[in-house]
Every structure is written in C-alpha cells, then in structure tokens.
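Much of our argument rests on the idea that a fold can be written as discrete symbols. The record that follows shows the chain in one-letter code together with its fold in token form.
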Amino acid sequence: MAASDDEPDLMTASRPPARLRFGLSGKLLLLTIPLILIAEILIYVPSIANFRMNRLNDRLAAANTAALVLDAAPSGLVPEVLARQILASIGARAVAIKTGQQRRLLAAADMPAKIDHDVDMRDMNAWSAIVDAFQVMLDSGDEVMRVLGPAPGSGQFIEVVVDEKPLRDAMFRFSRNVLLLSLVMTSITAGLIYYALHHLFVRPMRRVTANLVAFHENPESPAHIIAPSKRGDEIGLAERELSDMQRDLVSMLHQKNHLAALGLAVSKINHDLRNLLASSQLLSDQLASVPDPRVQRFAPKLMRSLERAIAFCQSTLSYGKAQEAPPDRRMILVEAVVNEVRESAGLAADTSIEWVNAIERGLAVDADPDQLFRVLLNLVRNAAQALDSDRSKVATAKQIRVTGRREGSVTILEISDTGPGIPARAREHLFEAFQGSSRDGGTGLGLAIAAELVRAHGGELNLVEGTIGATFRIMIPDRAVELHSHRDVRIRA
C-alpha cells in the first residue's frame, strides 16, 4: 500500500536529532598534528643535508691537518704504520693534495678498486646538498666516495677518500634522534595549540550549539535565550546577535499566540453578538415608528450605528484578516463624517472635553466613507482616552481639534489633543498591533487598523513631532484620472 503524503513529514518530525560522530575538537586535533609534522619535515630536510656537509667538512679539516704533517716529512721517511694510523684517525683511506700542476698522494691504505662518488665541497649548493644527502641514505652497499675541498697553504685542493657507510650510519642516528625529538615537540605543541583553540573557539561554539538545540526545543521560553559573553571578537558578536534574534523571536511568538488566542475568543462570541445586534436592530426599527421628535431624531443614527456594528462583526476582527476589503472610494464631504464621528465617540457639547472643528468649508475627500469613519473614530477615541487618563498636575484645557485642508490633489486631516502625548517607548512600534499602545490595558489595534486603512487609500498616517499633546496627520491623495476615457469621448464627438 502506498504511503500517504503526510507520512514522510511525520517520520521526519519523530526522528531524533542526529548526534555528532566526530566533533569539532577531534577534527581540530587531526588537523593540528599533520600540520606540525609537515613543519617538522620541512625542518628535518635541510638539517640532514647540513649534518652531512658538516661531517664531510670535518673530514676535510682533519685531512688538512694530516696533510701538513705528511707534507712536512721528507719523502719516503714516514713509516707505513704511522701513515695508516694517521689515516685511521681521520677515517680516510687516502689523502692527496694538488699543488700547481702536481698531484701528490700523501698517504694511502687499502685503496678500493674504484671510486663510487665524487663530492666537491667547493661549489656545493643547497639543493645539491639535499639531494646528495638522501641519495647517501638510500644507498645500501659499501660505497667509497672521494671528497674534494680547499687545500692548506698554496695547494689548489685536497682529496680525501672515505667510506660512505660510517657517514650513512651517523646520518641514520641523527635522523632517529630528530624523529624522537620531533615526536616530543609535536606532542607538546599539538597539546598547547589544541588547548588554546579548544578554549578560545571550541568551547564557545559548543555553548552556542547547545543553546540553539535547547532553544529549538522550546522557542517560546525566555529562559533559553543565550546570555552573551563580553568577548569583543566575532564569537562575541555572534552571541550578541543570536541573543537579540532569540529575544525578538520570543516576543514575536508571544504576539502571534496573543493574536491567535484573540481570534479564537472573538470567533466564539461573534455568533451570539451578531444575534444580539440583530435583535437590537429590530427594536430600533420599531422605534422609528414612534412619533416622538427626539426619537425620530436619534433613531436613524442608532440604526446606522447598529448596521455598522453588524458589519464589523461579520469580519470577526478586521485586523486579523489577510487584508481589508478594497475601499469603495467616492467624493464625500469631510465635515459630515467628522460630525458623525463626534456623536459616535460620545463627545457631545456637555462633556468636559472641548471639541474644535477647523475644517475648511466644503472640503471633500476621495475616500471610502465607512473606512474613513473607522480611521477618524479610532484616532478620536484614542485622543479622548488620553485626555481622560491624564494625571499630570499641569492644569491645561482638555481639547480635541480636528483640522482639514486640501493641498493640490491631497486631502490633509489632523486630529490633535492636549493630552500627555506619546511616550518614547511607544513611538518605535506605534502602528503595530499590540505594540503601539501607550495606555495600560490598551491593545494598540486602533492605530494599526487606522494605518492599514489609510495605506489602502494610497495615503499616509504619521505622528507630527513637536506639538502639544499628540497630533496625527492623515494624507489621502485623489485617485488618478483616467484620461483615455475622456479622449475616446472627444474622438467620437
């Protein structure tokens, strides 16, 4: 039977997190050891070549001393036994010197049938010394070499015939000692480097990794936010940025949960609330038939308020929807909407808050009347609540002022109050839901809804700086005129 599309996701979700088979510390150790060994090899190669050259120079120096002794004795007066002893003391089979055009054999003993290698120490370079050194170590027989070097006094050069095996044995002993010393130095150096890197990098990375795993298990818990260290390097910067990111994520998740809980609660009461409002609408219809002049005056307004409330309930929570319905724009008089907002906000003439209407006579705006009403009502209610909650000792008149004017094709409305103003902590997220409220118990939805509705009109809602209390400015541009339709009419005419 084929598996359903959901099964891979369930298997992935239930799969335990993979464990690190080889951690960063192990990789660091494996990287450190070969690097140090490479450095030791780079040191060993010239060292073994230098060791061979020093041994050969020692033979030449001893041969020079022996040549002075042998050359000072009259020809044929050096006994053969003494000559052998001198050659044995310098580790050579023969010593010869060239002076001018004459090449003279000073002493010889057990001369081989042939010479396998010639080594001229007078023009030896570094590369030749390295190649010759490893060639000696790779040879396995009893080769004989002839070494040439500067001669003492007036001689052109001195020749020494020596066996290669003692030199090769000495080079292997030197290599063994270097190897043992290198192993000790490698162990100590690798340990120190490993400890330093582990302390500086691996431990902080383990701490960050453990925090990420814990935060992934419960991203809503503030207890899992990493506490950044005081380091000034890139790791310290990464810890601080991670801490800020986790803190923002926790705040965002709390906000999303708040929105989800709010949407669930509103959806539960929405059905019953709509029924209650529908009953109230039926009662208001009956009030419309009462001949009392006061009832006839207020009944239409009550009916419009109930209709608007029912429309709001149909959307459950306007800000919780993916987007608002597009505005149904038309030219409307601003003053009529403002007067309806004043009555809906309960700011009648007998209240303690003074209402100032400074709208240009006949000012019209190209907007959706219901959405403009919601924008102004939210701003006016916020202003009234700010004035009612003002506990400052400074005695100022409580006033809400609504101004309106037109600048070209843009309609500008301003709602001002003489309250305490917007605190600095609320200005950073002023038009964000559940973030911009400056009042205890406020949700901040009013400004968020108002800003969204104004943006749907292609306008802007801003807080004006440097005013007494708080002043919000609404700018709504007129829609662009479609000139092609008028051009078609003229062509037909």
Observations:
- Confidence is low (pLDDT under 50) at residues 1-18, 315-320, 485-493.
- The first helix runs from residue 7 to 14.
- DSSP finds twelve helices and twelve strands in the chain.
